[in-house]
Amino acid sequence: MTCHLLLLRHAKSARPEGVDDYDRPLAERGRKDAAFMGGLMAREGLVPDLALVSPALRTRETWALARRAFAAGIPERFDTSLYDSTPERLVNALRAAGTEAKVIVLVGHNPEMEETAALLCGDGEIDAMARLDAKFPTAALAVIDFAVANWAEIAPESGYLERFVTPQPA
Questions:
Q1: Is residue 99 part of a domain?
Q2: Total-model pTM
């Protein structure tokens, strides 16, 4: 049995003066990149069974634009523990996801996304590992496979980085 994790960093955000970090919206480029990544996920068959999303505005907007590419409604959980988080809290959120979902997209922030990918990937496709080690840019997607029956079984370095995709050339 395999579980697939799609770590999607929020797309490029704007930095309007006087707006709190939590309420920052996406920039125009971010809106385009989020929609592009959703389309790419759909074309590549990376269809989540569950979306775990930070409730910050830019992550909610990223997911709202990406999910338009999928025909079926995807259950969503907006989890406050995913904002201003740690890799350990993100892994705990995954472990608590239950046994029904085999493909989970986690939409969050850096540096947590980059650190979580580094924590979970024990191995991976060589080029993808090199690009992930260099940078986890906005709207990037890390696809990590786990040879486990359910999310409660994931552990550090137990994942395989199947691919790492960005909307812009690296």
A1: yes
A2: 0.96
How many domains are contained in the chain? 1
d(CA 101, CA 20): 33
pLDDT band at 74 (very low <50, low <70, confident <90, very high): very high
Whether residue 80 has pLDDT greater than 80: yes
- Give Cα separations from 121 to 46, 57, 62, 70, 138 (angstroms): 18, 28, 24, 27, 20
Domain for residue 116, yes or no? Answer: yes
Range of the domain at 134: 3-15+33-145+158-165
pLDDT, tens only, 28-45: 999 999 999 999 999 999
Residue 138 within a domain: yes
